[in-house]
Design goal:
Blueprint (H helix, E strand, L loop, with lengths): L2 H18 L5 H7 L1 H27 L2 E5 L3 H6 L6 H8 L1 H15 L2 E5 L23 E3 L6 E3 H14 L16 H5 L12
Parallel strand pairs: 1-2
Antiparallel strand pairs: 3-4
Helix pairs in contact: 1-2, 1-3, 3-6
């Protein structure tokens, strides 16, 4: 369950409590500010996660390749009803912004890569293997490569960003990083300061 859905559940619960209180009472006044506090807390959690994740990439990598996605276009033209909300909740554009300024300040190279067919193209032979978004395994009909769809796409992004085939950084796909693992990291992200 994503942060927005958790927040929506909490906010609805608070709004039901507000509806049951008497108008003008002290309890109603106390509850009126709670939905804003829940939204602010969720926003802070999301920002903290994005900063720690970007800091991890900047510390571990000299060159970072990212898909040059049109996030606004994806939000407006999302295929299903929940897609724009999920894109917004993941904060792709915000993560890219944070990653870019941290990479710039640390002297790292951030390379935007063409997102065209990154998940359809085979990273081994370059053949196009069409698949639905729900199908999570890449199985190449031409060379027989079988791997996780996201791992295959990440290799294509790396190749596109570097504009040449390179040896994979790891022999197997990286394990997924969960929110709690990043939040439990010992190194803290630097505080964001303006000016």
């Amino acid at each position: 369950m994503n942060l927005s859905k958790i927040g929506d559940i909490k906010i609805k619960s608070i709004q039901r409590k507000i509806a049951r209180t008497k108008k003008g009472s002290n309890n109603r006044q106390k509850l009126k500010d709670k939905p804003d506090k829940v939204r602010e807390r969720i926003n802070n959690q999301r920002s903290d996660f994005l900063r720690k994740l970007s800091w991890m990439y900047v510390n571990d990598c000299d060159i970072i390749c990212v898909e040059d996605l049109d996030v606004r276009g994806l939000k407006e033209n999302g295929g299903s009803r929940g897609t724009p909300r999920n894109i917004h909740d993941a904060s792709w554009a915000r993560f890219r912004f944070i990653l870019s300024y941290k990479a710039r300040s640390a002297g790292r190279k951030l390379i935007p890569a063409d997102p065209h067919n990154t998940s359809q193209r085979c990273s081994s032979c370059g053949g196009i293997v069409k698949k639905e978004l729900s199908y999570r395994v890449h199985e190449c009909l031409y060379c027989g490569l079988s791997s996780d769809r996201d791992y295959n796409a990440s290799r294509n992004i790396l190749f596109s960003g570097m504009e040449q085939p390179v040896a994979p950084l790891e022999p197997k796909p990286l394990h997924h990083i969960y929110v709690m693992q990043v939040l439990a990291m010992k190194r803290d992200a630097l505080p964001f300061r303006v000016g």
